[in-house]
């Protein structure tokens, strides 16, 4: 808190300036007169030089009148408190001054007791402003210190409470997060239990979860992300930007390399819709729980599809031979556990990549067909239209048109 507030007396009559200076108990009020001015121009210069807190301003001054002076002060020192000194015949000017947010006024001839009361009131305003500013600064400091936790808490509320769009936008702005839906919503699950028994103490479990979060941050360091844990202990990820599949796949592989544990992940695109974020979280959560119930055989088959879908010769028969089991058995157990046939999942993986290439590249159709594992453009077009409902060319044109809008 400032010990003494700095005061200027601006009046073209020296006798009035002296009378004010001598008649007010400045120290008792916590005030100090640091300068005097006899015209508006001098007052403006001295006010800026001394950074005064309170100005006593006569409205009728030469060179620059009081109203013009107040206008300049309000532009340059908006927090300065201004008390105008006015005569009865200048009351119309006083009304104009009040429009400029002066803090009080006193009539000539100046009554010392009345002026002292006004100055005490203005000093109290200054003290209250400083106290409020200090509290706001302290609150701001605390918010900044806990920004990560506040973001995590909001994101958890977002997926649990389904807040209105206006509330989401307000919170995104307050927490200095991108003013749009995350492009990807992801869930990471560590199926640590087997046979109903956890192999880790709670302390070790928390350390490993913390290590996983660090790995996630490192793998996605080029993107704006928020990660947090839901009530069931899943790590939830909001990602702004679109990482390549390889970057997302690096997360579970890096965790396996460094921590020697297996995790399951699922990432879903929001399409930029804020309202879909809670829904996508639910879908991703269900997906990782379904994945955890897959047998090692089906999980390995899925990994083969996801990493080798671009191989034209990839087939159910070839994978069954590679895994040393019968084609019939693999077909049956895969459909039973994954909920889709081997061919259905392979086609889905290829079409998903085709959608990206159609939107993000200028590759010709036969080049896209080759990249995703189709031997001919015709076969690719047929499969694409069956899955998406329109031809690859139509999809590309509609995507370009959508971007241009």
UniProtKB/TrEMBL annotation:
Transmembrane segments: none
Modification 4-aspartylphosphate, positions: 58
PROSITE patterns, per the entry: HTH_ARAC_FAMILY_1, HTH_ARAC_FAMILY_2, RESPONSE_REGULATORY
Signal peptide, first to last residue: none
Localization annotation: Cytoplasm
Sequence ranges assigned to domain HTH araC/xylS-type in this UniProt record: 299-398
Predominant place of localization: cytoplasm
InterPro entries: CheY-like_superfamily, Homeodomain-like_sf, HptR, HTH_AraC, HTH_AraC-typ_CS, Sig_transdc_resp-reg_receiver, Tscrpt_reg_AraC-type_HTH
UniProt keyword annotations, A-Z: Cytoplasm, DNA-binding, Phosphoprotein, Transcription, Transcription regulation, Two-component regulatory system
Domain of life, per lineage: Bacteria
Pfam families documented for this protein: HTH_18, Response_reg
Every Response regulatory domain range: 6-123
SUPFAM superfamilies the UniProt entry points to: CheY-like, Homeodomain-like
Protein name as annotated: Response regulator
Species of origin: Paenibacillus aurantiacus
Lineage: Bacteria, Bacillati, Bacillota, Bacilli, Bacillales
């Amino acid at each position: 808190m400032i010990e003494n507030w700095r005061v200027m007396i601006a009046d073209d009559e020296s006798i009035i300036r002296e009378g004010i200076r001598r008649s007010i108990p400045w120290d008792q009020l916590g005030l100090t007169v640091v300068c005097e001015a006899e015209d508006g121009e001098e007052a403006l210069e001295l006010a800026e030089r001394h950074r005064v807190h309170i100005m006593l301003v006569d409205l009728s001054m030469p060179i620059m009148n009081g109203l013009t002076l107040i206008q300049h002060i309000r532009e340059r020192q908006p927090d300065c408190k201004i008390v105008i000194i006015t005569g009865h015949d200048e009351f119309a000017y006083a009304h104009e001054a009040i429009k400029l947010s002066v803090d009080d006024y006193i009539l000539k001839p100046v009554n010392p007791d009345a002026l002292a009361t006004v100055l005490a009131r203005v000093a109290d305003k200054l003290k209250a402003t400083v106290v409020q500013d200090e509290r706001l600064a302290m609150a701001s400091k605390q918010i900044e210190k806990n920004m990560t936790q506040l973001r995590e808490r909001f994101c958890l509320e977002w997926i649990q409470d389904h807040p209105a769009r206006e509330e989401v936008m307000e919170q995104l702005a307050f927490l200095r997060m991108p003013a749009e839906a995350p492009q990807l919503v992801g869930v990471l699950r560590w199926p640590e239990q087997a046979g109903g028994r956890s192999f880790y103490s709670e302390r070790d479990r928390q350390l490993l979860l913390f290590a996983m979060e660090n790995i996630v941050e490192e793998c996605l360091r080029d993107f704006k992300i928020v990660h947090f844990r839901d009530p069931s202990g899943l790590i939830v990820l909001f990602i702004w930007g679109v990482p390549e599949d390889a970057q997302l796949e690096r997360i579970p592989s890096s965790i396996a390399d460094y921590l020697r544990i297996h995790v399951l992940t699922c990432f879903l695109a929001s399409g930029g819709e804020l309202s879909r974020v809670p829904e996508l979280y639910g879908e991703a959560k269900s997906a990782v729980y379904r994945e955890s119930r897959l047998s090692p055989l089906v999980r390995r088959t899925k990994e083969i599809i996801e990493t080798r879908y671009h191989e034209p010769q990839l087939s159910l028969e070839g994978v069954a031979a590679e895994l040393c089991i019968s084609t019939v058995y693999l077909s049956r157990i895969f459909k039973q556990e994954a909920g889709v046939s081997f061919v259905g999942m392979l086609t889905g993986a290829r079409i998903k990549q085709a959608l990206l290439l159609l939107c993000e590249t200028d590759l010709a159709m036969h080049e896209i067909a080759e990249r995703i594992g189709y031997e001919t453009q015709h076969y690719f077009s047929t499969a694409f239209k069956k899955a998406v409902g329109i031809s690859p060319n139509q999809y590309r044109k509609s995507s370009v048109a959508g971007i241009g809008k």
